[in-house]
Amino acid sequence: MSATPADIAGPIARPRRGVLTRLKGWPTSVxxxxxxxxxxxxxxxxxxxxxxxxxxxxxxxSLLSSPxxxxxxxxxDTGRDVFSRTLYGLRLDLVLCLLVTFVPLxxxxxxGALAGYFGGWLDTIVSRFADIMISFPFIVLVIxxxxxxxxxxxxxxxxxxxxxWALYARLARSEMLIxxxxxxxxxxTALGYSKTRAxxxxxxPNVARPCLVYSTIDLxxxxxxxxxxxYLGFGVQPPTAELGSIIAGGQGYLLTAWWIATLPGLVxxxxxxxxxxxxxxxxxxxxxxxxx
Length: 292
Fold this sequence. Notes:
Largest sheet: none
CATH class: Mainly Alpha
CATH superfamily: MetI-like
CATH topology: MetI-like fold
Order of helices and strands: HHHHHHHHHHHHH
Number of strands: 0
Strand content: under 5%
CATH architecture: Orthogonal Bundle
Number of domains: 1
Shape: elongated
Structural class: mainly alpha
Radius of gyration: 24 Å
C-alpha cells in the first residue's frame, strides 16, 4: 500500500485550548457565580491588605457610627470597623467550610464508587455505615460533639465531615451502579483493562460530577451552619471575627444600628448565591454533555 500524504506528514497536532477558550463553553451562570465568588474570595484572602482597620481595633470615638467613607459598613457598639471584621470573618469561614466540605469528598467518592462497582459485602458494609450516619440529625450531631469538645471550631471540624462523607458515599454509590452498566465500562472488560484502570480512569470522572454539584450546595449549608453555631454561641468565640458572631453581636441593635447585622448577612447571602450559580452551571453542563 502506498503511503498517503497524511501518513507522511504524521499526526496533526491538536491546538491547545487556553483558559479563556474553555470558559466560553460554560454556561453564563458559572461565569457569573465564579465572578462573585472570586471577588469575595480575593477580598477575604487579602483582608490584611484591604481592611482599613484591624478586626479587633477599637475606636471609642466612633461607637455605633453609620456607614461612611471612613467606615464602609459602619462600626459596632465597641467602635470596631464592621467592614474589616466582615473581611476577616469571611476568610475564616471560607477556610473552615472548604476544609469540612472538600477534605472528606475524595474519600467518600472513592469508597462509594468501590461499593457500587463491586457490590457484595463491601457494598453492604459501606451502605450500613452510611445509613447509620445519615440517620442522625445533622445539626444535633454537630451540637453533641461541640458539647463534648467544648465551644469553638473543633466540634465543627469533627462533626461535619463525620456526617458529610456518608451523603457523598451514597451518592457516588448510586451513580456507580448506573455507570458500571454503560457500554464504555463494559468495553474496558472486553479490552482487558484492569479494574483499577476502569474505576479510576473511566468510572470516577463520571461519578464525581454529581458529587461536585452537591458539594456546592453542601458548602453553602456548611457556611450557614458555621454562622448559625457562632450565632448560638457554640461556634467561633468572640472577639474572633466570624460572620455568625458579628451578626449575633448586632442583633440587639437592629432598630438603631441595622448595619452591624445586615451588611455582613448580605455578604453571606451574596456568596451563597455565587456558589449556587456555579453548582447550577456545572449541573447544566453535565446534562448538555449527557444529551449528546
